């Protein structure tokens, strides 16, 4: 990695992560348009390449059609096509790129972390705690996953790593009750931010979703405006099911934003584009690894350009 | 937009069914829909192309256009091809080696390796009477070894004692040695989650393989995986060598295209599937069933099997006897509700019902079937006295208020339940002469709480 890359910070990390996928996509576009006119066949191929990045059939078709409108039957070079697609995607993502900023007047600002099993909720809480603490905020965490084996111990280790207190009860205790206690403790200890973990749950399990609604009701008994953020953690390898996942979580517990994890893998995270179009939920940050440092802001331009295999110019 | 592959294909085939004969253009149009449906179901593009091509060749070869019921024929070809792609039949774990047989679990972060390790151990211990030792080689994720230890306690399966600082290859060797010395049949190796593109960690797991010589190397993958499924499965297969795949989170509503992709790209059978977080929620993978489920023709085989598995014979006979006498009280309704719950609730039954087309599926979804209703109804029943359950006619206004209060429900809900029972009792009389099979079907129909509209006709 060159010095310049090192300096450019998170982008190089993201780009390294996305490089396999983006270069594949980039190469694909390269081979489609080398010395060719933009015709129906090449548009279809382009559409298919977008589909293989998980953008989904509808979004891919629309992006390809837009390109066709302006460039059809013209000689196009691959770089131009990438640039214009990246710009198009950036336009879609720009409005949703919003950081997760604790509100200083809330004391504590309460963030509830939700999502399907194994998406990265607990790890993201650890990363956020580390991030906020580095900014001088007083952070507290609540081990609200009282179901999964060793979920509490997992968060407690994050507590040790980040030096932030963790409110916990034994496995099997009531998650809503724990959230209640955690808020009381965060208040009495004057914490700025309280990060509440929850057990993973599939959105189509009505009993588990009802349990989450109960957690919300109990939290709101203490503070009618809380949780101030309900963040859904989404695994970047997820395909089109993310649409159903987010639709249901939004409908039932009114999530306020997303964090996308595991973008350091070969998954392309293209589903984000379709999600932005359909739900316009803020994307707060992305996960690019398993350690505390591996959380990055989500930037529309960098993400779009990475997706298209373009440099950060 | 269509909500599922099932619906999408359903609507295509609805169109086909309505025509007496198919033009070639119709077949092409149908296959275009199939292609889009498969892509929306997250089947990887190269796999989709291959599939559509095969179906086309088959369809033309079998003279679809001259067939009497062309729609059905195309359905059958698509179905057969899907099944074939998923694998001919169920393939079990291969433990036919000199003991201890080592099973190594690999996969991406959070895919379900540790949970599946415990599930498989539980099954081998309880169903196949194997002596199983589990070992966690995950020295990276916080509390990963602790997680497996706790699961081992829950299912009463030994876990290798944790030695702080010990590295994966050394742990694997110690596990195999311990197993050989102490006469274990099977060693389950749970590994840390890793990215397929992480060269260093992929080399580590290859080193574990070389040290432990697993009889089975299972890729644990999430049923919600998108297009990346082919890259992941292909890379793990090339770098580690897979013998099978475990698909987790099949209890979700993902369309499961990853199942097709991974099978196609590795040629490895999908051996098992996870259908929940609990440790007994592991099932054999039956390709034909999954294919027909994807296609929306319902999984009547699995419905019948599930029903007979759960419906304890004794109870069935007791109920049959009562029905013979024309008696069906609230106790019987209660036991039916409980059976219903055991079968995985309304929504899981719905998915397995045959003959539903796209519109009906959508209607069902819109009706927002809620399994919690069963729970509430069971609560109502348990707030009744034995007399009330046996002789529902004694439940007048006062009793209704008490029951509602006791069960934390409303009088309206109590009324609804009583009405539902009356209808069920009437229905039971009707099916009296139909034998056990008919009774079961009638029983299931009646379990639909009123106000949900029953099964769409
Ligand atoms: N490579 C990579 N791995 C990640 C990232 N975020 C989380 N993980 C890993 O993913 C796995 C699951 O993460 P958890 O934080 O335990 O996920 P969870 O959503 O809390 O899981 P449950 O509580 O079981 O539902 C762990 O192995 C994490 O280390 C990421 O951004 N990149
Ligand atoms: N609904 C559902 N949840 C599952 C299934 N299998 C595993 N899980 C859940 O998925 C989450 C992650 O499972 P783990 O077994 O910890 O995954 P892992 O692959 O060991 O994770 P790492 O070790 O961090 O890579 C947990 O919350 C499990 O309860 C399944 O079949 N269905
Ligand atoms: Mg967790
Ligand atoms: Mg694990």
Account of the 3D structure:
Chain A has 313 residues and is an alpha/beta fold. Chain A is 51% helix and 13% strand. Chain A has two domains: 4-96, SRP54, nucleotide-binding domain (Four Helix Bundle (Hemerythrin (Met), subunit A), Up-down Bundle); 109-297, Rossmann fold (3-Layer(aba) Sandwich), CATH 3.40.50.300. An eight-stranded mixed sheet of chain A has the order 5-4-6-3-7-8-9-10, sandwiched between helices. A two-stranded antiparallel sheet of chain A has the order 1-2. In chain A, helix 11 (271-279) links the parallel strand 8 (257-261) and strand 9. The longest helix of chain A has 24 residues, at 10-33. The radius of gyration of chain A is 21 Å and the shape is elongated. The model of chain A is unreliable at 1-22 (pLDDT under 50). The longest helix of chain B has 21 residues, at 411-431. An eight-stranded mixed sheet of chain B has the order 3-2-4-1-5-6-7-8, with helices on both faces. The radius of gyration of chain B is 26 Å and the shape is globular. Chain B has 457 residues and is α/β, with parallel strands linked by helices. Chain B has helices at 5-17, 24-40, 45-61, 70-86, 113-127, 144-155, 168-182, 199-212, 229-240, 257-266, 287-295, 300-310, 313-324, 330-342, 345-352, 358-366, 372-382, 386-390, 397-407, 411-431, 435-446, and strands at 101-106, 132-136, 158-159, 186-190, 216-222, 244-248, 270-274, 282-284. The interface between A and B is large, with 52 and 52 residues. The structure holds guanosine-5'-triphosphate (2 copies) and magnesium ion (MG) (2 copies). One guanosine-5'-triphosphate sits between chains A (115, 117-123, 145, 148, 151, 199-200, 233, 261-262, 264-265, 287-290, 294) and B (109-110, 141, 193, 195).
């Amino acid at each position: 990695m060159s010095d310049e890359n090192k300096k450019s910070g998170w982008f190089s990390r993201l780009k390294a992560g996305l490089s396999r996928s983006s270069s594949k996509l980039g190469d694909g576009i390269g081979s489609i348009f080398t010395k060719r006119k933009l015709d129906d066949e090449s548009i279809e191929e382009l559409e298919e390449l977008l589909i293989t990045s998980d953008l989904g059939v509808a979004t891919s078709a629309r992006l390809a059609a837009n390109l066709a409108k302006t460039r059809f039957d013209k000689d196009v070079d691959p770089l131009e096509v990438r640039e214009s697609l990246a710009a198009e995607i950036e336009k879609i993502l720009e409005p949703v790129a919003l950081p997760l900023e604790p509100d200083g007047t809330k004391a504590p600002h309460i963030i509830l972390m939700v999502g399907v099993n194994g998406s990265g909720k607990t790890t993201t809480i650890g990363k956020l705690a580390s991030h906020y603490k580095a900014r001088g905020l007083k952070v507290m965490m609540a081990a609200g996953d009282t179901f999964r084996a060793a979920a509490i111990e997992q968060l407690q280790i994050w507590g040790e790593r980040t030096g932030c207190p963790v409110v916990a009860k034994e496995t099997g205790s009531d998650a809503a009750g724990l959230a209640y206690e955690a808020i009381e403790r965060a208040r009495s200890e004057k914490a700025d931010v309280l990060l509440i973990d929850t057990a993973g749950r599939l959105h189509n399990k009505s009993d588990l979703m009802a349990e989450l609604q109960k957690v919300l009701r109990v939290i709101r008994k203490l503070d009618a405006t809380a949780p101030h953020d309900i963040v859904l953690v989404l695994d970047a390898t997820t395909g089109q099911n993310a649409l159903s996942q987010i639709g249901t979580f939004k409908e039932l517990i009114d999530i306020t934003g997303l964090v996308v994890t595991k973008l350091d893998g070969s998954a392309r995270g293209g589903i984000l584009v379709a999600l932005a179009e359909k739900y316009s939920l803020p994307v707060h940050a992305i996960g690019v690894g398993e350690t505390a440092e591996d959380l990055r802001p989500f930037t529309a331009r960098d993400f779009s350009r990475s997706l298209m295999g373009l440099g950060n110019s | 937009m269509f909500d599922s592959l099932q619906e999408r294909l359903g609507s295509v085939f609805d169109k086909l069914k309505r025509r007496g004969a198919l033009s070639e253009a119709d077949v092409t149009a149908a296959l275009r829909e199939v292609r889009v449906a498969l892509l929306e179901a997250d089947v990887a593009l190269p796999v989709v192309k291959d599939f559509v091509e095969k179906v086309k060749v088959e369809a033309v070869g079998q003279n679809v256009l001259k067939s009497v019921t062309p729609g059905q024929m195309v359905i059958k070809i698509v179905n057969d091809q899907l099944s074939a792609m998923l694998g001919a039949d169920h393939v079990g774990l291969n433990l036919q080696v000199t003991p201890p047989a080592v099973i190594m679990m690999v996969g991406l972060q959070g895919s379900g390796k540790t949970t599946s390790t415990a599930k498989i151990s539980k099954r081998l211990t309880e169903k196949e009477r194997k002596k199983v030792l589990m070992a966690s080689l995950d020295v990276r994720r916080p509390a990963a070894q602790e997680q497996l230890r706790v699961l081992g306690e829950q299912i009463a399966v030994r876990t290798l004692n944790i030695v702080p600082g010990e590295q994966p290859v050394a742990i694997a060797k110690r596990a195999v040695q311990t197993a050989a010395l102490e006469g274990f049949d099977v060693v389950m190796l749970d590994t840390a989650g890793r990215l397929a593109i992480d060269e260093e960690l992929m080399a580590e797991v290859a080193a574990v393989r070389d040290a432990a010589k697993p009889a089975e190397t299972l890729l644990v993958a999430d049923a919600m995986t998108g297009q990346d499924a082919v890259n992941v499965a292909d890379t793990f297969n090339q770098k580690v060598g897979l013998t099978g795949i475990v698909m987790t989170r099949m209890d979700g509503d993902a369309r499961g295209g990853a199942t097709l992709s991974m099978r196609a790209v590795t040629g490895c059978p999908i051996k098992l599937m996870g259908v929940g977080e609990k440790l007994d929620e592991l099932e054999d993978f039956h390709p034909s069933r999954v294919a027909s489920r994807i296609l929306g023709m319902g999984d009547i085989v699995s419905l019948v099997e599930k029903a007979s598995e759960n419906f304890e014979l004794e109870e069935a006979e007791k109920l049959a006897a009562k029905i013979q006498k024309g008696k069906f009280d609230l106790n019987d309704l209660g036991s039916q509700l409980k059976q219903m719950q055991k079968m995985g609730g309304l929504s899981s039954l719905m998915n397995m019902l045959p003959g539903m087309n796209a519109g009906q599926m959508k209607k069902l979804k819109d009706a927002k079937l809620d399994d919690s209703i069963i729970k509430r109804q069971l609560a109502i029943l348990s707030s009744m006295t034995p007399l009330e359950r046996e002789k529902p006619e004694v439940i007048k206004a006062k009793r209704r208020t008490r029951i509602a209060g006791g069960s934390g429900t409303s009088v309206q809900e109590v009324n609804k339940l009583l009405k539902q029972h009356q209808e069920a009792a009437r229905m039971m009389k009707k099916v009296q002469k139909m034998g056990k099979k008919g009774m079961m079907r009638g029983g299931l129909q009646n379990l639909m709480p009123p106000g949900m509209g029953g099964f769409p006709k």
